[in-house]
Amino acid sequence: MSIDRAVLAFAGLMVLLSLLLTHFVHPGFVWFTVFIGVNMLQSAFTGFCPAAMIFRKLGLRPGTAF
C-alpha cells in the first residue's frame, strides 16, 4: 500500500468515526469532522500532511502525492 492510499483510507476512517461519535455520543464531535476537513484542505494546497509523515516512518512506499 502506498502512502497516498493509506492517507485516504485513514481520512475516510476518521470521518466515519467522527460522524459516529457525533451521532451516538455528543453533537460537539462534529468539530472533529470539521478539523479533519480543514486538515484535508490544507494538505491539498500545501502538501504537508502529518499522517503521511507517520506512514512514511512506518515504512510505507511513497506515492505520487506524498
From TrEMBL:
Q: Which domain of life is it from?
A: Bacteria
Q: Per its UniProt record, what InterPro entries does this chain match?
A: YgaP-like_TM (IPR021309)
Source organism of the structure: Peteryoungia algae
Q: What is this protein called?
A: DUF2892 domain-containing protein
Q: Which residues cross the membrane?
A: 7-25, 31-55
- Record flagged with keyword Transmembrane helix: yes
In what residue span(s) does the Inner membrane protein YgaP-like transmembrane domain sit? Answer: 2-56
Entry's Pfam families?
Answer: YgaP-like_TM
Q: Which UniProt keywords apply?
A: Membrane, Plasmid, Transmembrane, Transmembrane helix
